[in-house]
Write a structure and sequence with these properties.
There is one protein chain. It contains 26 helices and 16 strands. By secondary structure, the chain is of the alpha+beta class. The chain has a six-stranded antiparallel β-sheet with strand order 2-1-4-5-8-9. A hairpin with a 4-residue loop joins strand 8 and strand 9. The two termini are 32 Å apart.
């Protein structure tokens, strides 16, 4: 893969368009990319990565970060164009990220979607041919041609030295994470996880089966109760191989005991049932005798009570007969009462109306009153025309009042419209100023949003830096303590070892047996065995001290690694807190800001952003308010014109009404007859007519009521005589209501019914015979029956319990046998899966080096990387250093991803963390180049013709720098070009072809220059 041309526009710190000719830079084999801090050197590499993969390297792809330059003018699109040759094809990739652009109507901004274009150069026609504009299709096409993921590309083409320096010093786990990303060994890790998951699942099923069997055993123990006799229940644990057999054996014993108890309970129930039946018969006989005796005694008491009430019953019967004779007089009596009530009502009504009549008509009869009423009705009919005129006069008065009300309302409307229109210009000007202020606030809010997220990232990094610094101090204290402990453990072990060596002769003498050959010299004679001084150290003590020494040393190593990791993490966090990405522009702020200062910065930006958003949110409301005000302006003008038109029409109508009302007033003055109005005069006549009509009718009703009362009085006297009463008053006094008569009849009937029932009861033969026998005692019989009943229930309960125990034991035994049968295959599956999972996870005893499957695969890759890196490391170190892969175990840790350096001057193999700063740089550079070669082969042999090396040259001396430059220069033999990104001034003299990035106020720019060597 060779890069030819890169075009940037409004990208990162570059506000204007920039073109980079990689063909010109690659002519010398090595070119230098340099510039001041924050100018945008890394942004050039980000642009290459963005063109290929649509995203910048992962470490700089922070959430909310924008690729658009703050220096770019509105309307200028952020764009990256890369021309390269890969897989024998010359391609051109152009990408635009999602970005804001001005709306077409010029009000505010909208978000433009991300876009991509891919073209290919046709050598035959000499033209570019469009291939695709789909993000997915372009990504798939480039992934197939490049053969590397974004992480792999950033690792092997951009060669980040900081990552490889950490990789060089890191432990096996950190190396495994990086190699796993580059070589994609996730499928092997997935195999490990799948086997581990299957092992856990099989173990859970086996344990679940054991727990179910134990639960069944516990339930059988509860169900058996005392049926097992002296045999104790089993107490196995989950996983015990004899668990199933012990549970089944004990279940058989419990079932046998339960069957025997069930048979005994059946016999006891049969005997209790016989005793209960005899007691029940005796209780029934006593209860029947007691019932008959009480029945006869109750009949005698009822007979005595009836004789005491006989005289009362005769009196009630006579009273009832008299009331029934009075019922024959009741119709005539009711008729007389109705006639008397009507007479009084009619007389009272006529008296009230007569008081209201004039004095000359107070004693007039019904006919004279009717004649006066007819004359007044004739006078009332003659007022109808005058009443119509009066109604029209009232209508005119109401219409004039309505016209006055409309005039006042129109005056109010006109004054309100004129007052509103007077302030129209000021109102319109205010709305337009609000709209302009909201648009300015929207632009300011967008700018603040771009600054806010980088500030938050720096704040989080500062907090993490402070936390890691504190943890590093604590880790340093723990390391110091671990070192002291390790030194003391080593001294203790060496002391015991020395003491054991001194007492070795006594230890050998203690193992000699008379007549047995010596294990050292072979002689059967032991003339002078070394005496035991009492201070001899046995092997167990020495081994214990050695184990303590090993643990203390491992703890010291772990503390050192922990401190190194914390220090490195703290440095990285401090770098992130120190540099302000500011949306990708590369600008930097304070060299070492505190968390408090960053909190204040974030707080200030958040407040300003909220204020700007709040003000910008009113833009739509301000436009709507202006529209409403313009509509209201037109409406107010129309309302004022309409009010003026209606005022002119009302003036003409008011004059016509005045003329008509004057004529009606002259006409009505002739017919008032002393009343205020014709209506009042007519109402007075109507009241007189109604009064005379009511008085005439009332007089006729009173005369008729007197005649009906005379007729009713005669009929009442005749009815009372025929019923046997001397006077109507006597008949009225003897009368009773129907309800009272029914009550008397019921009382008489009840006495007669009760007398007949008592006579029948006393005539029954069985109660009379029972009365002659001794008194019954049902209480004693009931007590004997309850005793027998309780004994039967107790025996039945024992029998039911025995039956339930037998059935439950049989059911649980069958469940247990089924569980045992199903658990066998599960145990076999678990043994097989657990063995494979332990082998791939490195925890099995068969895995001597405790290597995981993924580590085993990565170890082979690391061995290839070490071999490829050694080729260049030998040249950079003048043949002194060689990188080798080590799969040796360190303490109790697993092996597989160790990396050591072999020093040919001393012939020793040591850890890479012992290298100096400059040695670490060229070793990590060799490692990065070797890793690039291996990843290239892994990716299908894609050739990488353009590489970039980011920083690290400042730690080299002059001679080593020459050797490193020679190694990089040798890449030209393979037709490769290498770009060095560095601040080192000495490289400007050694590398003639240079790409300089210059910071300027309106954005960074790039300059291609070729300087003579030595300048």
């Amino acid at each position: 893969m060779r890069l030819h041309r890169l075009h940037l526009n409004a990208f990162g710190p570059f506000g204007a368009a920039q073109d980079i000719d990689f063909d010109a830079l690659s002519g010398g084999g090595i070119f230098l990319l340099h510039g001041p801090t924050g100018a945008g050197k890394t942004s050039v590499l980000d642009a290459v990565c963005f063109a290929l993969y649509g995203a910048v390297p992962g470490a700089r792809q922070s959430p909310g970060a924008s690729l658009r330059s703050d220096h770019a003018r509105p309307g200028v699109f952020t764009e990256v164009l890369l021309e390269l040759t890969v897989g024998g094809r010359r391609l051109e990739i152009r990408r635009r990220p999602a970005q804001p652009r001005p709306k077409k109507n010029g009000k505010g901004f909208t978000t433009e979607r991300a876009q991509s274009w891919l073209r290919e150069y046709d050598a035959e026609s000499g033209d570019w041919r469009a291939l695709s504009r789909s993000h997915q299709e372009i990504g798939e096409e480039l992934a197939q041609l490049v053969g590397m993921s974004r992480d792999q590309f950033c690792q092997v083409v951009l060669l980040p030295q900081g990552d490889f320096a950490r990789f060089l010093r890191a432990d096996a786990e950190a190396r495994g994470r990086l190699l796993g990303r580059l070589f994609d060994t996730r499928r092997f890790a997935a195999v490990e996880e799948r086997l581990a998951e299957r092992r856990r699942s099989a173990e859970a099923r086996v344990r679940s089966g054991d727990e179910r069997i134990l639960a069944l055993a516990h339930r059988m123990e509860q169900a058996a109760g005392p049926a097992a006799g002296d045999w104790p229940p089993p107490r196995p644990q989950p996983g015990d191989p004899g668990l199933a057999a012990a549970v089944l054996h004990w279940a058989a014993i419990a079932r046998a005991g339960a069957y025997e108890g069930r048979d005994i309970a059946e016999c006891a129930v049969d005997a209790a049932e016989g005793r209960q039946a005899a007691a029940r018969n005796a209780l029934d006989d006593e209860r029947e005798l007691d019932r008959l005796q009480r029945r006869h005694e109750e009949a005698r008491r009822r007979q005595q009570a009836l004789e005491a009430r006989r005289a009362e019953c005769e009196s009630l019967r006579d009273r009832l007969e008299t009331a029934r004779r009075a019922d024959r007089v009741a119709p005539a009596l009711r008729l007389w009462d109705d006639a008397e009530r009507e007479r009084r009502t009619a007389a009272d009504r006529y008296a009230r109306l007569r008081d209201r009549l004039p004095a000359d008509l107070a004693d007039a009869g019904a006919e004279h009153l009717a004649e006066v009423e007819r004359r007044l009705r004739q006078d009332l009919g003659g007022l109808e025309a005058a009443r119509g005129a009066e109604r029209r006069a009232d209508e005119i008065t109401r219409e004039r009042a309505e016209l006055d009300r409309e005039a006042r309302a129109d005056d109010d409307v006109r004054q309100d419209a004129e007052g509103w229109l007077a302030g129209w210009e000021a109102l319109r000007h205010g709305h337009r100023e609000r709209i302009a202020a909201a648009q300015d606030a929207a632009t300011r809010a967008e700018h603040l949003a771009g600054r806010l997220e980088p500030a938050r990232l720096r704040l989080r990094a500062a907090r993490e830096r402070d936390r890691l610094t504190a943890e590093a101090a604590e880790a340093g204290a723990r390391l110091s303590a671990a070192r002291d402990t390790a030194a003391e453990a080593r001294e203790s072990w060496l002391d015991l070892k020395e003491r054991r060596l001194l007492g070795m002769a006594a230890e050998l003498a203690a193992s000699l047996t008379p007549g047995e050959p010596c294990g050292v010299c072979g002689s059967a004679d032991h003339p002078a065995p070394a005496p035991d001084s009492g201070a001899r150290v046995d092997p167990a003590q020495e081994e214990s001290a050695y184990a303590a020494h090993t643990r203390a040393d491992a703890a010291r190593s772990a503390a050192e690694r922990e401190l190194a990791v914390l220090a490195e993490s703290s440095t990285a966090a401090a770098d992130r807190a120190r540099t302000d990405p500011d949306g990708g522009t590369g600008r930097e702020t304070d060299p070492d800001p505190s968390a408090t200062a960053l909190e204040e910065l974030v707080g200030r930006l958040e407040r300003e952003h909220r204020e700007a958003q709040s003000l910008a949110s009113g833009a739509h409301a301000a436009r709507e308010a202006l529209d409403r005000a313009e509509r209201e302006h037109g409406e107010r003008l129309a309302v004022r014109q309409e009010a003026e038109r209606r005022a002119a029409a009302r003036t003409s109508r008011r004059e016509a009404l005045e003329r008509e009302r004057a004529g009606l007033a002259r006409e009505l003055a002739k017919v008032h007859d002393g009343a205020g109005t014709v209506a009042e005069h007519a109402a007075r006549l109507e009241r007189r007519v109604r009064l005379l009509a009511e008085a005439a009718e009332s007089a006729r009703d009173a005369d008729a009521a007197v005649q009906r009362l005379k007729d009713a009085d005669g009929r009442l006297a005749d009815a009372a005589f025929r019923a046997g009463f001397d006077t109507p008053a006597a008949a009225a006094g003897a009368a009773l209501a129907d309800r009272e008569q029914r009550d008397l009849q019921h009382r008489v009937d009840d006495w007669r019914t009760e007398a007949a029932a008592v006579a029948d009861r006393l005539a029954e033969p069985e109660p009379r015979a029972a009365a002659d026998r001794p008194p019954a005692d049902p209480g004693a019989a009931l007590a004997a029956h309850d005793t027998a009943e309780r004994a039967l229930r107790a025996a039945a309960s024992v029998r039911d319990t025995a039956h339930h125990r037998c059935a439950e034991l049989v059911r649980l035994s069958r469940q247990t046998a089924a569980e045992v049968a199903g658990l066998g295959p599960l145990r076999e599956e678990y043994d097989l899966v657990a063995g494979l999972a332990g082998l791939t996870a490195g925890t099995s005893a068969d895995n001597e080096r405790r290597m995981r499957l993924e580590s085993y695969v990565l170890a082979a890759r690391l061995e290839q990387v070490a071999a490829a890196a050694t080729v260049r490391l030998l040249r950079m170190s003048s043949g002194r250093y060689t990188l080798v892969h080590s799969d040796a175990r360190s303490g109790g840790k697993r092996s597989g991803l160790g990396l050591h350096v072999v020093d040919s001057w001393t012939g020793s193999e040591r850890d890479t963390s012992t290298l100096s700063g400059g040695e670490t740089f060229f070793a990590s550079l060799a490692l990065a180049l070797g890793l690039a070669d291996v990843v290239t082969e892994e990716a299908g042999g894609v050739r990488l013709d353009t590489l970039f090396i980011d920083e690290g040259f400042g730690s080299l001396d002059e001679q080593t720098l020459d050797e490193v430059i020679d190694v990089l220069d040798s890449l030209r033999e393979q037709d490769r070009s290498v770009g060095i990104v560095s601040h080192v001034a000495d490289l400007r003299r050694r590398v003639p072809t240079q790409l300089e990035v210059v910071k300027e106020r309106d954005g960074s720019v790039v300059r291609l220059r070729t300087a003579p060597l030595g300048d």
